[in-house]
Amino acid sequence: MDEKLEFSKRLRAAMQAAGCEVRASVIEHEFNQRWLGRSISLQAAWSWLNAKAIPAQDKLQVLAEWLKVEPQVLRFGEGVAESVQKYKARWEDKLTYEERETFDAFLQLPAPQRKILREVILTFAKAHQEPPPEDPAS
């Protein structure tokens, strides 16, 4: 995967969705109106739009705010955001109060004790994994 190319595609799509003309001069103008630092050049805007560079995080946040998209979605895409949300939901939806309390206590332990407990938990998990289904051909 070419990160610069993928970013460029997302930037173009976000501009279109925002009703903007997809041109480097539009990026330069709109970005510089919102950016408090040193203005970007037309060349910098062109490089973002044409898969030559990805803006730094602080500049990416300005672009995202202008285009009304989440910065992480503009930078990494919807797939990453969805994956993170699914992972978070798994933790939020399935844990009981007692399990959360246990995790909080675990996190308060010193690192060597957490390491020991982690090894114990992983050993139990490995011992209780279901065996793979047998191959009917054998």
Walk me through what this model shows.
This protein is mostly helical and 138 residues long. It has two domains: 3-77, 434 Repressor (Amino-terminal Domain) (Orthogonal Bundle), CATH 1.10.260.40; 81-127, no CATH class. It is built from eight helices and no strands. The radius of gyration is 23 Å and the shape is elongated. The model has no long low-confidence stretch (mean pLDDT 89).
Task: Provide a brief overview of the structure.
By secondary structure, the chain is mostly helical. It has two domains: 3-77, 434 Repressor (Amino-terminal Domain); 81-127, no CATH class. The chain has helices at residues 3-17, 24-34, 42-49, 57-67, 71-76, 78-94, 97-108, 111-127.
Which keywords apply here?
mainly alpha, 434 Repressor (Amino-terminal Domain), 8 helices
Q: Tell me the CATH architecture of the largest domain.
A: Orthogonal Bundle
| Overall radius of gyration | 23 Å
Under the CATH scheme, which class of the largest domain? Mainly Alpha
> Stretches where pLDDT falls below 50 for ≥5 residues?
none
SSE topology string: HHHHHHHH
Instruction: Report the biggest beta sheet as strand number plus sense, adding barrel if it closes.
Output: none
Count of helices? 8
Mean pLDDT: 89
Give the total of domains: 2
| Coarse morphology | elongated
Spatial gap, N to C terminus: 39 Å
Estimate the strand proportion.
under 5%
What is the CATH homologous superfamily assignment of the largest domain?
lambda repressor-like DNA-binding domains
Structural class by SSE content: mainly alpha
Total count of strands? 0
